[in-house]
Amino acid sequence: MQSLTVSDNVDERPAGILPVAALCAVTGIASLIFAALLFGQLVPLSYGSALLPGGLEQSGPISFLVYGALTLGLAWGLWTRRGWARRLTLLLAVIGVVLAVPGVSSAVVDSRAAAIVREGLQIMVRVAVIYYLSQEPVRDWFSREAKSAAGLAAR
Question: I need a surface site. Which of 17, 42, 51, 54 has the fewest CB within 10 A?
Answer without folding.
Answer: 42
